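User: Structure tokens for both sequences below?

Assistant:
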Amino acid sequence: MTVPYRRPSRRRIGRIVTAAITGFTVLAAAAISWPALAEPSGDLQLGVTHTERSIDDWGAPDSIAAAKQILADIGPLQNQHLMGWGTLNPWPDPESAQRNWETLDTRIDLIRDTGGTAVLTLCTAPGWMKPGGGRDEDDDGEDDMDWEMEAPVAPEHYDDFAQLAAETAQRYQDVKYFQIWNEFKGFWNDDQNRWDYEGFTTFYNTVYEAVKEVRPDAVIGGPYAPMVTYQDDGRHPSAVGGDWGVVDHRVLDAVEYWLDNNVGADFFTLDGAAQTSDGSWYPTTTDQVTDKFQAITEWVAERTDLPIWWSEFYVELRPDSSASTPEMIEAALIGMEQGGAEVALWWQPECSSTGSFPCLWTSVQQPAGGQPTPFTPLARSYSDR
């Protein structure tokens, strides 16, 4: 099995990023061949996930060029969702054989132009594939369910989404890595007050088989499990916990079911945050952050030999803000690495005036944008080419 390249081992425990921001090297947009490694090296490779805000053509030209230079140096793994995070619905008309690939083409071209290795997350779905979809009550020409991001694919449309996923894989032959869905979105069983892991696994298997049929070389991961945590107050307890709280056993049950019943997978995906999911606890020390990410990663590693990817991760430090620091972000990456994870993807690397995610370059829509941030040296140190 082929997994992303991991640089020679280099321990980071206790190292705080204080490196000065230096010039960045622009890399040619050439295809990168990743070697197959028989044994994990223990190193973590950091990549990014593009969202609504990224390096798009309507920014200032100088800012775009500067941001591309940074992106080229902090890759190579760059993730883009099929639709809904910076890309439009590629199949708006269920009766038409025509597809609208324009916005996804633009994002894949960005990844190519910056020498990246593309990852495609097969989520979300055209509105007509979701329960209650196929309507346009406000007469704006769009399906009202297109941007209902938390809605699942309806069972009667699993095959339709699988067809779209297969067409996507066929179109982008140079894209090797695919993640199926995102955070079990919509797959919740209200009657039993738990994840609908049976429905999700059936959906996953349908998509997996369709993509593998047309692209046997595709490297496919799942289930993109959201590691929900609470304070240790008796709500949905599990054996995975610490002074940072406890993981909700319902997501662990879903993971174990998926591991036992999927028809195939090439890597394991999950996400989570340093703070508890209900905002009742926030970390105050780097040790707490490291311990949490390490404990969760180790729990997964004890149950599967698949390479482990943290598809999203967050470190909020107080309830009124998403503010973080490079030291706290590094503490999370250390925990992942010590637990055995091989990849972590940084959500929304471009700064936004409306959000407070830690970001890696300033907005290209600003004059003199595309500049590094205090987090950029940290990202570079985990993404050496």
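Moving on to the next sequence.
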Amino acid sequence: MTESPETSEARRAALVATLRENGWVRTDEVARAVLAVPREIFLPEGVSLDDAYAVDRAVITRRDENGVALSSVSAAYIQAAMLDQACLKPGDRVLEIGSGGLNAAYVAELVGSGGTVVSVDIDAEVTGRAQRLLGEAGYGDRVRLLTADAGQGLAGEDPFDAVIVTVGMWDLAPGLRGMLAPDATLVVPLIMNGVTRTIAFRHSGGPLMSTSVEVAGFVGLQGAEAHADEVFTLLSPAGHSMRVRFDSGVPVDMSVLDDALAGEPVTAGSGVTVASGESFERLSLWLAWFLPGFCRVEGDDEVMAGPGGRWFPFGVVRDAGVAYLTLDPTDGRHEFVARAYGRDAATAAATLAEQVRAWDRDGRGNADVTFGYWPEGTDRAALPADAAVLDKSHGVVTISWPGRGAA
């Protein structure tokens, strides 16, 4: 990059102002950390300052041979929000899982000279790049890089006051939980039935209980604790495709959908509308937790797009039907419409539309959602009475959604 340091400093100041204005930076400490670290040093050659300091732009730094992202520098608003969630203070001992360099530099600023920062990644190329760039930015002696599978724990390391995970995790393995000191904070993008939320958990000796929740997406964890979705591809007679993706709970017989795209789509309006620009990010979370048969759906516009041209990857498989959501224009607003294919398309569409109405009635206006993580062996009688439960390999995740009532 050829821009002057003064330009970089000005961009940092403008970025912090935007982050504060939108509520992604809530503390002076995080603001000072973002001001101190030049983001552009940690981005690939050729990335402009416009991209480096865009508030909502992630930059991929490594892909595999198939083009799948393995490592990235997260968008500035995500990094700032997670740092606020972690509540770091001078002298803290902090572990970062997923090494890019930039976030570790921010952490080093927050914990100061008396703190400890350890950054770990399973990919030696990623840690090598991070080590080089941290050195160039002046943080080479303030961050220790390790190449290891952090999902299995880190032998010989003392517990940490905070663990910040910058990769999507499907479960919280015992090795990870074992790295938390008493009263430590774990900030982790947790994948729940295909939908990710970045949750700050407090470790108090029993279950992990959430203290804050943010919306964010990350590349997935590699290593022994990686979790792969099951994906089924449906083809239309014209050769267009739809891919149906399950995090868990795959129907016993997906072959009933083999010829689903041969027929015309069936639709069911929900009657639920949103204004242009209105956020409805909680809808995907609601569907992931409370819609039996929930799946993620993607495909070619020729089979996916509704009248308004917009479709969303949230759907359901019900018997021999698969449905997903479109957003169709109506009376100056936009209505959620379930669009479905297959012999049981009408059933699938009606099921999805009804769950959208349930969200609108019981969940749309309730912001104080609480998560818990209960290790394997927990007596289920100890779980909150109003919570829904999602089984994982090493425990269960619960969600308590005010207004919904008992699960």
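User: Anything stand out in the second?

Assistant: The chain has three domains: 5-215, 230-363, 370-400.
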